[in-house]
Amino acid sequence: MKIITFLLLITTYNLSFSQEDSLRAHVNRMILPDNKVESYIDVNDSVDFFIDAFEKRFGEVEEQNGVYNWSDVEIDSIGKNLKIKLLHGIWITKKNEITFSPISPEKVKKLKSNEKRGVRIRVFLKDGKDALISKANEIILMQIIETLLNNPTNTQNE
Fold first, then answer.
1. Strand 37-43, strand 97-102: pairing
2. pLDDT digits (tens, 9 = 90+) for 49-71
3. Nearest alpha-carbon partner for 23 in 145, 132, 135
4. Contact status, residue 92 vs residue 101, Cβ threshold 8 Å
5. Residue 122: beta bridge partners?
6. Distance of alpha carbon 66 from alpha carbon 88, whole angstroms
7. I want to staple 87 with a disulfide (CB 3.0 to 4.6 A). Which of 120, 129, 139, 144 is the partner?
């Protein structure tokens, strides 16, 4: 009986943990052909609300072909004169490969079963380096992103 209870508890824990694993935002890293690492935050939930909340938080900018650029951004504990690049696009799954293609939100029509809208965010320090290389910066940025996802009306500077 103890074993069954233990297995039931583990299964329940794993199910709740699995739901936590399917985060609405997560950090990805890609190794480029020149062996440089490119880091970005992917958001795949509530895309329109998220973009609106992001613009309320960092200011409205003009979108061009799915690309939004902010400059001279200040985030406490990370720094000043940051640059943020947000790409709105479509995730396309073909066979075992997933690709992301930027597209203007206005051009999105009915999605196919292998397509999903998403946002990809890159943050650059004053010197042009990837802010997500630092684990401390990653934690701060993810906290901001999760706050915007969970409380889109809470857009105060942190």
1. unpaired
2. 999 999 999 999 999 999 999 99
3. 145
4. yes
5. 85
6. 5
7. 120
The pTM of this model reads: 0.78
**Ranges assigned E (strand) in the chain:** 25-31, 37-43, 67-75, 79-94, 97-102, 115-124
CB contact set of 49 (below 8 Å; sequence gap of 6+): 152
Query: For position 153, what pLDDT does the model report?
Result: 62
Low-confidence ranges of the chain (pLDDT < 50): 2-23, 155, 157-158
For residue 13 the two structure tokens come to 């824990």
- Count Cβ atoms below 10 Å from residue 143 Cβ, excluding itself: 11
Supply the pLDDT for residue 54: 95
* Packing angle of the helix pair 47-58, 135-150 (nearest 10 deg): 110
